Amino acid sequence: MPALDSARATVPTFMLTQTRVIRAPRARVYEAWTDPEILKQWFGPTALRIPDVSLDVRVGGAYRIEFAPRAVADGDACGSQNTAAFGHYTKIVPNELLQFTWSSNWQPGEDSLVTVSLKDAADGTEITILHENFNTEASRDGHNQGWMGSLDKLASLLEG
User: Fold this and answer.
1) Among candidates 35, 31, 65, which has minimal Cα distance to 49?
2) Total Cβ atoms within 10 A of residue 92
3) Cα–Cα distance list, 133 to 54, 109, 110, 156 (Å)
């Protein structure tokens, strides 16, 4: 009988990184991530709005962000139902770093990790988002679009 190969098969995981400078002080950018009322104003892709947010910003604390379709000019909506992202904070360094697990009801079974790093930059705050452990390239690419839209809206809010 042949010996079984005990080496674990490697399963590819996918990740994304986005870096951007926001023309605002680091404390203000951090606040935008940790104050539910501010987060509602900018988080998520352009086609969605945030009707409800719950943030318990401490290691082990839970968060939940509800997404709803944003009505467009012709009265149609993008998507037909509310969705949510949720998880727990795993690491927090005020004004420097937020790390949290990321799960969603639109991608059941995919548990990923988001790390948001903030550094002083000449023109404000450099923000880097590392989102890792996606199950598929399609999921990574969809989240990449979502983070791009979020960062665009964050810049508009804080720089406006």
Assistant:
1) 65
2) 17
3) 24, 12, 8, 29
- The structural domains of the chain, ordered by start, are 14-159 (3.30.530.20)
pTM above 0.85, yes or no: yes
Alpha-carbon span 78 to 76, nearest angstrom: 7
Rounded-to-10 torsion of CA 110, 13, 48, 64: 40
pLDDT tens readout for residues 2-38: 555 545 555 568 999 999 999 999 999 999 999 999 9
